[in-house]
Design a protein that fits this description.
14 strands; binds adenosine-5'-diphosphate; six-stranded mixed sheet; binds magnesium ion; 11 helices; elongated; 28% strand; alpha/beta
Amino acid sequence: MIEVRNLVKQYGDFRAVDNVSFIIEKGKIYGFLGPNGAGKSTTMNMITGYLSATSGTVLVDRHDISMEPEEAKRHIGYLPEIPPVYPDMTPEEYLAFAGELKGVPKRELKAEVERVMELTGITHMRKRLIKNLSKGYRQRVGFSCALLGNPEVIILDEPTVGLDPRQIIDIRSLIHSLREKHTVILSSHILSEVSAVCDHILIISKGKLVASDSAENLSKLMRRANTYDMLIQGEPEKIQEALGKIHGLLKQIRVEVLPNGFTEVHLETDETVDPRAAVFRLLAQADCPIMELTSANLSLEDVFMELTRQDEQANLKADGKEEADHVGNL
Ligand code: ADP
Ligand code: MG
């Protein structure tokens, strides 16, 4: 249905989307997951033709979005991160206006507006000014707009951000109800959000696609590794050097010194290797006593954290820098 090939978006020296490729098949719900700043909105804006790509192609039903934007866009309904709704219009007026822009034939327009308002449950708010609607209802107006003209693919950028739990449940069931007739792509920085509704998860981190699989397979994938959490007494560098000698070691993550002076280590080895005896010997040789060792299975949450960890750290650093700048300005 949609084919994204080597998509790149470059802003000056900064690559917001870095060579992303994936295929969206008909009739599934896709989750586009990644921390803030990962490149989700940028990618979605390129898929929907709102933003031109620096390089790469997007084919929507075999139509290139840059060559035949009208044809490609006919297949897509988009709810952007900040929906462009007009505060001084009523939902009814706004949807009629948006429907016309979208090319819904004039004689079908009225019925189509009724249909989408019914679907999203805003019919009783049709005559209220959008600026007087709650955030949840405003979001539904944006949602209705994406459904206008009954496009095959519905793309929703963080549709539940800023909503309260009740509204989130409503939007979720709305997304569920689309499952039968539409292909849905939905972005979020919250894992539970996508694992609750999506058949397939694409994880994006620092502009790169780092995983693409079903939620079930993603957690299975990680369970194939043997994973251990340890508390060790000793210098992190010394511990790392000692553990580096383990046969079948895949990676060491989270080597950090806790406030109590112990070093926390998360270790993963090949599924065929049980490293515990080697860990014991190597750390004894290095004079780094093991205070605690537990075997852990990675949950989907861990998979996400691990795949996007560097992103989070980069964000933290950037935040710290901003604060420093503010102090400098004062
Ligand atoms: P997400 O939607 O995953 O939170 P975005 O796609 O909005 O991320 O942004 C990805 C990165 O691109 C961010 O670091 C953002 O600051 C940067 N970015 C987005 N738009 C622009 C722009 N117009 N100019 C420069 N950088 C941009
Ligand atoms: Mg975004």
